[in-house]
Amino acid sequence: MNLISRSHWGVNALALCIGLFLLVFLVIPVVTVVIVAFQDPGTGAYTLVNFVDFFNTSLFQESFLNSFYVASMSVVVATIIAIPLAYFTTRFNFSGAVLIQTLGIIPLIMPPFVGAVAMLLLFGENGSVNLLFDEWFGFTIPFMQGLNGVILVESIHYFPFILINLSAALLNIDRAMEESAQNLGASGTRLFRRIVFPLAMPGYVAGASLVFLKVFDDLGTPLLLNINNMLAPQAYLRVSSIGISDPMGYVISVILVTFSLFSLWVAFLALKDKDYSTVQKGGGGLMKRDLRTWEKIGCYAVVILILLMVLSPHLGLALLSFGTVWSYSVLPDAFTFAHYGNMFRVAGPYISNTLLYAGLAAFIDIFLGTAIAYVVLRTGVVGRKWLDFIAMGAVAVPGVVIGIGYLRTFVEFNVPIIDKPLASWWVVIVIALSIRRLPYALRACMAALQQVSVMLEEAAENLGATKSRTVRRVVVPLMTGGILAGFVTSFATASVELSATIMLVNTEADAPLAYGIYQFMQSAAGRGPGAALGIIAVLIVGTATYISHRVIERTERQRSDGGIVVAEVAGAAP
Amino acid sequence: MTEIRPDAVAVTIENLSLSFGDTEVLKGVNLTIEPGEFFTFLGPSGSGKSTLLRAIAGFGPNPGGRILIGDDDVTRQPPWTRNVGMVFQSYALWPHMTVRKNVAFGLEERKLMPKEIKARVDEALDLVGLLDFAERRPSQLSGGQQQRVALARTIVIEPRVLLLDEPLSNLDANLRIQMRRDILSLQRTLKLTTIFVTHDQEEANTTSDRIAVLDQGIIQQVGSPIHLYDEPVNRFVADFLGTANLIDGPLETVDGTALFESDNGGTAMFRPQDLTIQPPPGTAGPDAALLSGRVEHREFLGNLIRYNVTVGGRSLIVEDSHNAGRPAFSPGDDVALALDTRNIRILTG
Ligand SMILES: Nc1ncnc2c1ncn2[C@@H]1O[C@H](COP(=O)(O)OP(=O)(O)O)[C@@H](O)[C@H]1O
Ligand SMILES: [Mg+2]
What we know:
Chain A is mainly α.
């Protein structure tokens, strides 16, 4: 094809540069971490002794079990939250469906660690809810005690992953799937067990394994809740207290990566060859039925209860940021703006650093994303699939591992002009953020380019537009929506990422917002300003999320119009 | 299973009405489908064919009226107790089960012994020629094969009635002809009362013992394909089954008499092949009327040529069979038309 023959050395050079970037900032740091984990710290010889040490240390055994327990339980709790919501929207004509959709988004606009401290004040042993429980019923519930707290905070935050995947799977089952089973004699629970459940299963497993991966790798939430006997906090604490020569951080990193890969593999297996989307044109969805009044009340009660749970970190954070003293009481004693004043006095650099880092990282991401998408989809560059594969592989690399890998790899690499190691230069934070967010931006760019059907390009060329004019007038306008959405998503998530940044921040002056929140929350006096800074984070992420939703909505509309045009053209052909 | 079933049953539909909310989709349908009959619901899209078929299977809103299968009033029975087999337009094969599992499903629901299930599944798959594909997933089959699996899955439960909703619409043209023959021969073998839904008159004509023509939820006419074609009761049926000349009011012949003048209120209908096109002045036999007109338009269709001829301000459709060497008329030519008056029908609807 002429596409390929024209993709002369320019495209190859581009692909090579991207490949080098990924090699230096993703492959080498991760491989380094793995190698060090298998090396004797003294001699450098390859050995399993670090792993033996790890599993012989009771603290690490406990941390390992705790991480596993917390991740598994978070999946269970998130499932319990998600199932009724998914079931209501897909099975019943339920007017609260909009509420449920909102529920699916709200948690994602605030990273879990930001609300963690607020959750302590609401659900802790002496938190608002338990004070009320004690007064009314004479007992308390240990919502936040020890690992419970991590589980609660994480599952409230990550259940949307299950909700979204499960709902999509259920919505994609065509009514005829159920009807044909009924026609052949099945009904009730047997019908559900044999048809609906297995068809929805792949979507559920995909969502659940994602939750497992996220929780297993999370550093911020346990740190903020002061739970140190888990894997990610241990890795961080070892490296920050003992130093980067301590092998345990590397061993933990290898375990984290292994489990991440394992959950991704489970998700992959669940979805492999299982495109169970069976909805027909004009049909669609499972059989829905109307609710009786008392059922409707029940549904609303469940949804509102969950909504309250999901909103509680936000609510708690707001109370904390406006409250004077809040301790052993249901609500703060009085309200004030003082925390915002205090926060703004010191947090200016945090905010500007965040905007700078996240902005740059998102920019790098859409540049890499667009370039990789183009190379993969529209050229014949050798090894182009690998670019895609490696870039996507970043999903499996926890922030802690990136942090440790960068510290180890770049500590001896002096940046010429400023004359200090790359590992302690703020730019390395930007690069870490961009690598962490690249998979998401890449998917957005791929989708954007894929939707520009080659037919649309050919139509433009047929009407006399040159290749470059076609790209300018057809491809780019059609892609901008997707690229913009990728930019905003990268920006929003990068601006509140903690696990890699916390390890790479070298001086207070270079620290971003997430680090600032962590610092504030360390002391009781800092909680108010920390919460105020958290509110700023929520505002930034919320705004960005809102923008990206609008952009995606607009793009989808455009695409569906375009889709109709294409379908009509195809339909008109004999 | 392959031997002739002596127990084929009739389906009786009495005064059936059905609404989706405020929209009345079926309006007082009365029908009797004979045991072992290949019966077709024919009508344009949205006429209520699927709704009627689904009502027989027990799907959709509760209808008014009665549905009987044999002597059994099933109107209030849930779908899973009716034992009527339905083949869905989309096939509705379960993607998470193999072909064998799909076909075995209904038998498993009937709690048969595993050995018998296996034997009957094998037999059914053999019947549709897919025994070698038993361990595949539906997604690994072509459209035609999926169609056969859906068919096997339905007939394996030995349903009292076989319902087919546009089963050929997702297949390409060649396969469609093959499949409709296969379905018909299967039906003949099993002697199974079968109701077939289609919007394609050729499909209906080539397969059916009898056809019910539906429009806007009302049965317009019931009869054999030839009967419906030759003796339509109204404009809709005349038009839907083939091409028709529908004439309101008089049509002047060459000898000055006005045809149809006495038929006030009715519409005269005759088929394009009831007109014989000739060079002027032309001749007409004893049972024919001679008309004169001018060719407006010509379409070559291979085995025949279709002309639009204006006669006294009206446009008539004329079809002339075509053989090599036979002269054709061109637009602008003056022509004579002989109309076989024996085939004129006066429609009142
Ligand atoms: N589930 C439904 N809800 C509301 N209206 C429906 C539904 N199914 C069918 N209809 C309406 O009933 C009429 C008949 O539909 P259908 O039986 O599917 O027609 P056909 O199969 O002849 O094309 C159509 O006007 C359609 O819009
Ligand atoms: Mg239909």
